[in-house]
# Entry
Amino acid sequence: MELNNQIVLRPRFKETIKLPLEEVVKRFVEQKTKQSRYKIVYFDEHVFIKLPKNEQHFWSPQLHLELNKDEEKTSIHGFFGPNPSVWTLFMFAHLILATAFLGLLVWAYTQYNLGNSYFWQVFLMILIVFFWVVLYFGGRLGRMKGRPDMDAMFQFYKKTLGVAV
# Structure
């Protein structure tokens, strides 16, 4: 799985394995008791692989696997991401910046049509774009910080299912 060259902040993968859904679930449930390196949560054809609380940092990743039955095979959609509360905060910051940008855009357009100066609105819009870039690269930096854990989780996932890495 190549994670470096992707522009996305939540890397994804999809594969189909030649095991029935029940066997895939059984293997993860067994690993839940056999090992203590990861916390494994399973419900409704979703498996979450996380680090224990005492090993987590702000950008600690988790692996979410969505399992779909496909005849005698299982289709697995997986994606890595930070803790859901971190991701929600991250998306909320994007929403605030986008709303402020649009508000300033409308205000600047109104000032332009009235023949007034719109310097400050444009200046603040440029500042918001700068903050968007900082937020994006902050997310990339967080992903890089969590990269060793993502690689280890991916190896654990492959090992659990007995798939060649």
